[in-house]
Amino acid sequence: MFKYITRSVILLLFLLSLGIMAQPKTEEETGPRAPHPGLPFEISEKKRLSVRDVKNKKEGGYFTGLPLVNSDPNVGIGYGARVIYLNNGGRDNPLFEYTPYRYRIFAQYFNTTKNAPYHWLSLDAPYIFDTKWRVRADLVYDRNPNTLYFGIGEKTLQPLSYLERNDPAGRMVRNAPFADYESNLGYRRPGDVGAGEAPYVTDSRYNRYDIENPNFSFSGEYSFFGGTVRTVTGVRLSKQIVRTYDGKTYDAKFGASEQLGGVPLGSGFLDNVVGEHLPTPEGETRLTRDQKDGKILGFNGGTTNTVRAGVVYDTRDFEPDPNRGLFLEATHERSAKSIGSNYEFNKNLVSGRLFFSPVEWFTKKPPELLEKFVIATRAALMQTNGDAPFYEYRNMWGTESNQSGLGGRTTIRGYKQDRFVGQTMGYANFEIRWKFASIDIWGQHFDFQLVPFYDVGRVWDVTDRVNLKGYKHSRGLGFRIPWNQATVIYVDYAVSKEDSQAFVNFNHIF
């Protein structure tokens, strides 16, 4: 634990030093604007929006929102909508130039063709009632019947491998793409009667389980030192219902060992007729196997209630789409039976984000084509201690967002969600956000950004083994559309050695 704290402090100090050295000159250094009169309390000029952002910021309350559409082999084709209401107040309000909005409320309905709903109601109110308090609240119903599980720890970092056509006597294929790996698990194989399997089974859902997770979270943040430092306290109340697929019937393909009169059934006319629609029981899943081997807790789900605490250092000028600034946070989350949880464990997280505009190092007035050219970086390290259920190892609580496992839209984008999970997890993201065009239409302001990016990350069995070796990498290209500045429409395409994925959603990932 002491080594973890020491490394965390070193990481935060390193990021802080980078922020001080890399920070471009602000209006305060190149010709400061006078502090806005009438502020209810001191707010650092570092938190003040740029002249350009203030000019484009919309007054009063307004709605934004779009249909949610995405495609992911893990959960199917997604559909739904998010409706957002933002209130910025008037330009005569002293806080207009120092906040992303006075409050934001949104409601989301989302489902997929594989029945993975994610419904969400959210509130965020900075400096609520003109006080130093910020309030956040989220009510979520989340169910994913296709959640991935490859185990817990460093073994999940191993490249995927499979037996050709899922044949126990078949050729082993190593360093496999995810699509080929899953396709081969869809073949039938002889069942293990001793493990309670049917005579013939499929492994099409070997790495999957179904988790239902209604949850509510609430946090209050109090500002110090002109709003650059915040202390955070909060709670999470949640229920987890876990279902496995062992023994349930799914479509499969004839296996290599199935023959009729010495002729393999997995080839020729019969295979073309039946295709992948041969009803077959699912074999023993990876989750069930780990439960039998005593490797995990939480196989039957349960209740997880936690108390949360954190501290934040934040000099970003505009939270939804920063031009400059540094964001550092350290959080602690504790689950205990005394507050109604079924499990005793705790989590610690440290993360840092740095935003700077290198063009502003050379000129106070960059050309219009480069007026927003931002380098954005993030690094995070998280550990879980105690008797945590298996599904909690993937959860990462940050003061602004919750994330799940390594892989997927918000961490290592070229790998499937929750592809890598461990007692200790670390990752980093690097993006270049270049605004190449903007337009005003029907009273709405839109920017258009091109965003190349690079992600790295890995997991460890224990925190003492954290190092800079053996990371997984992904890269890609994104397209972002900030709509009235505070709503960012997000499109990313990422690739890795194992997979490729496209995402459509809202908001930068950091």
UniProtKB/TrEMBL annotation:
Signal peptide feature range: 1-22
Keyword flag Signal: yes
Keyword annotations: Membrane, Signal
GO cellular component, one term: type V protein secretion system complex
GO MF entries: protein transmembrane transporter activity
Cell location: Membrane
Gene3D superfamilies: membrane protein fhac: a member of the omp85/tpsb transporter family
Domain Bacterial surface antigen (D15) as annotated: residue spans: 302-496
A single BP term in Gene Ontology: protein secretion by the type V secretion system
Pfam families per the UniProt record, alphabetical: DUF5982 (PF19412), Omp85 (PF01103)
Stored InterPro entries: Bac_surfAg_D15 (IPR000184), DUF5982 (IPR046024), TPS_OM_transporter (IPR051544)
UniProt entry tagged with the keyword Signal: yes
Domain spans labelled DUF5982: 39-102
PANTHER family named in the record: OUTER MEMBRANE TRANSPORTER CDIB, SLR1661 PROTEIN
Protein name: Peptide-binding protein
Native species: Leptospira ilyithenensis
